[in-house]
Specification:
2 helices; mainly alpha
Length: 52
């Protein structure tokens, strides 16, 4: 496989935005606060990955 001359051309810059479906948001509100916080933290980490 041939390597690109300019590695910047081989990198796609993506930005992710996560949104919850209204039914999922209602369900999220029914779980304990610590689980809600974990869920939201994972979403934030995924968004950060998309900004790298």
């Amino acid at each position: 496989m041939k390597k690109p001359k300019d590695s910047k051309k081989a990198i796609l810059e993506l930005q992710w935005t996560l949104t919850l479906h209204p039914l999922a948001e209602r369900e999220l509100q029914t779980i304990p606060a610590d689980m809600q916080a974990r869920f939201l933290h994972i979403g934030e980490m995924l968004e950060e990955l998309g900004m790298v």
